[in-house]
# Entry
Amino acid sequence: MHAAVLRYFDHVARQGSIRKAAESLSIASSAVNRQILRLEDEIGVPLFERSRSGVRPTAAGELLLRHVRETQNEFQRARAEIASLGGTVSGTVRIISLESVVARVLPQIVAEMATRHPRVSFTVLTIHPSEVADALRSGDSDFGVLFIDNRVSGVEIVAEFPTTVGALMRPDHPLAGARTLTLTECARHPVVMLNDRWLLDPIMAAEFAESGARLTPRIVSNSIEFMRQTISRGLGIGFVSPIGFLDEIRRGELVHVPLAEPGLASSRIGILVPRQRRLSPPARLAINHVQKHFNEFGRLLTAPDRGPKRRRRR
Amino acid sequence: MHAAVLRYFDHVARQGSIRKAAESLSIASSAVNRQILRLEDEIGVPLFERSRSGVRPTAAGELLLRHVRETQNEFQRARAEIASLGGTVSGTVRIISLESVVARVLPQIVAEMATRHPRVSFTVLTIHPSEVADALRSGDSDFGVLFIDNRVSGVEIVAEFPTTVGALMRPDHPLAGARTLTLTECARHPVVMLNDRWLLDPIMAAEFAESGARLTPRIVSNSIEFMRQTISRGLGIGFVSPIGFLDEIRRGELVHVPLAEPGLASSRIGILVPRQRRLSPPARLAINHVQKHFNEFGRLLTAPDRGPKRRRRR
DNA sequence: GCGCTACGCTGCCATTTCGGCAGCACTCGG
DNA sequence: CCGAGTGCTGCCGAAATGGCAGCGTAGCGC
# Structure
């Protein structure tokens, strides 16, 4: 329905080059070039700055680009909405999330939805926290499952789930029997540490820093999977939310003991959607699934093996 | 930039007929017809119900229509935004308002803007209150200058100005010297009445009804201009907000005495914009002008000839 | 019933637009 | 100096777009 030039324009801006865009569009570069020139003629101002190495959107280009992308996104959403009139949910759901959620929770959700709604496709990406705000606001994704950072604006929190950062260790570890632990208590044992601000949310990072416990990690990594392996082999204890390790905890292969530090005990994971945006039917469905799962996990997320504590709040 | 089919689709839906749409587009009906058929083919579902008397959008059609219109509106806004980068404000401002405001306030504003920003064009419409919500939400207009009705949702109040409904009369009228008046006091004299719910806002109408003052109007009309004439000739007193008569009041040709009834004394006129919508640069400018004017009129709006009372609030 | 009108739709054709190919002018890095 | 990258431009065939005339149908007035 929409003019081809919208797609061309978007690609050119993304690739920063007319020829590259043409290639990714499987089209002759001359065609793309002409469409861009015609568009600039219509708008009346240059949309790109030409340099030897390619093109870069001008201020006007950025403005129009936002309109074009918004139009494309809204069109997809409208189509999905129309398709859902006939009962069949279809379209693409684009999710950004934490590595641990991507690895453990989302696959199951995708599997569930895939059987019931075969015409829904998924894009699931892990993302650097500094890009969270942009990724949501630009409309490149439908929603995020992320640590809640109050400093990020322009997003709405659809649901939030408290989770507890705790010490993760083997059941035969000396500290495995404790109900809670402080960082200082843990400091006497080998530690496996996430090195990245990335996987720890900013609040957690601050808490770790000011807790004063001089943790000297034996192992540092930014790979959840690597942590899983090393902890499972008894090489140390890790400080993480239990989400990425729910299966192991349930099977009794690992134990998750909540930390006593208040700032860490009250960490929150939330479903975030860009404000001022309508969600497509499949996106709404996916959010419901995520919500359901986190509610079911609720008990485990806060106090793995012990009694029930609390449920979702709004 | 955008495909022609968007315009065709919009016109067909508006006119309820392919041939009519074609005519209003100055194009052959066959061309329009084919574009619609092609579009339905692309979307995969019928967008119109065909009947002998024309076409009517299906549910899917309504959905797509909303996307199309939103796209067109946003495109206009984006163009205006781009134009304003170069310093020249351009585009169209679409305003809906009360008859009295349209007649007395907006002309001056349009005049002011026209000299400074010759490339801005205006659409100024009076509108029936029942259509206020739709007109704003559908994006057919940029903002409204209207009586505030709290029951209308989906709109945001950018600014509001208290105004007083009062009795309007000639200076030589027996009641002209009063500081305030009740409806009962006025009931003893001939009255010129707006017959329409239209120009009175709903709150005012209710207040009039329950005040119990059995007003027996000598003259009833729904024309502001007719009221002006009859009141000026001493045929009665009218109950109106002073906006439409500011010039006469300033020149001393008419006197506006506030009513004592509390519900009427606190009537509010507001600048309303649809929620969830970005305003085009010229629209923002126009709103600023309106705001400035109402602030200047502030004193007159509440207590025409007497001391200052209040200013804008937020 | 019989025109008349208005509706959506469909072949056929001219015109416009779009895309592919090759090539130009240019700049940068080796 | 040369090769590889850039944006841009003629030229030409192909595709889309719009105009015209006409078909079939349904409602309305006489």
In short: Residues 4, 27-28, 30-32, 34-35, 51-53 of chain B lie near DNA strand D (CB under 10 Å from a C1'). The radius of gyration of chain B is 23 Å. The first strand of chain B starts at residue 48 and ends at 51. Chain B has 13 helices and twelve strands.
